[in-house]
Amino acid sequence: MRTTRTTGAEPRTAAKSLTGRLTPYGFISPTAALLFVLMFIPIAMVMGYSLMDNVITNKHPEFVGLDNYVKVLSNGVLPTAVLNTAIFTIVSVIAHLVLGLLFAMMLNTKLLSNLTTGLFRVIYVLPWLFTVAIIAILWRLLLNPNGVINYVLVGLGITPTGIEWLSTPGTALLAVTFINIWAGYPFYMVSLLAGLQGIPTDLYEAAKVDGASALQQFWHMTLPQLKPIIISMSLLDVIWTSQQFALIWMTTGGGPINATEMLSTFTYKLAFSNYEFSQASASAVLLLIVSTVLAYVYARYQKARE
Q1: What are phi and psi of 63, to 5 degrees?
Q2: For FRET with 68, which of 89, 109, 148, 192 sits at 20 to 30 Å CA-CA?
Q3: Is residue 176 left, alpha or beta, with left meaning phi > 0 and alpha meaning psi from -120 to 50?
Q4: Domains plus CATH for the chain?
């Protein structure tokens, strides 16, 4: 009888198979470790702080349960912050979409020469190139009572004196919303322009043959083709705009008299103006929940698209 001799081929094959399965995890392990240290651990700490007596300023904080959440939800400034955030977000997102679509369609038209189109592209995309700090300083100078905008309005006789755009309760929210719209529409414009250029021209030629007007082509052809892009960008814009902090803080600081108080500035002031770090942590957790819900909706939509 002939006996089969066992070799080391099978163990080597198993080792290679195991190495092949573990290799992808090796590649993502640095990123996973970074996320764990910079995101998951801080989130867990903030959640813990929200359940304790005032941390940082108290050497021996005690567990208080949901008391901080009750205090935040019963804070008289919170309804104002929620309303301002809702107005700021809704108006900004709608204006971003409308302006971005209008400018994208203008840049996509064949009525303009290549030189003119290129010039307009540079001009329209400029707000996207500036940092938040530059945008805030630029518009604070422009909206100053002695600034260019008031100079033009007074010169045209629209107003007898300069308006305190960022210091008047009746105009502050309008002003910061306008600044945010100006800074954010290029994101829509660039994305929608790419979408417009991806629509086959055969569809429009067939529609013209069938006698469809320009408005009918836009409503029944252009918008349906752009619908996936519009929904994706709108969901992202809602998440980003509702969390806007830097622009508000560097222009109005949430004032005057809470006229531009947002959920982000409300949370910041709880921590670094009132030194209520536990309440600020509770407010941050509530914001995290809202953001998580919005992110879940966005992820579900993207999965449904695929």
Answers
A1: -70, 125
A2: 89
A3: alpha
A4: 77-305 (1.10.3720.10)
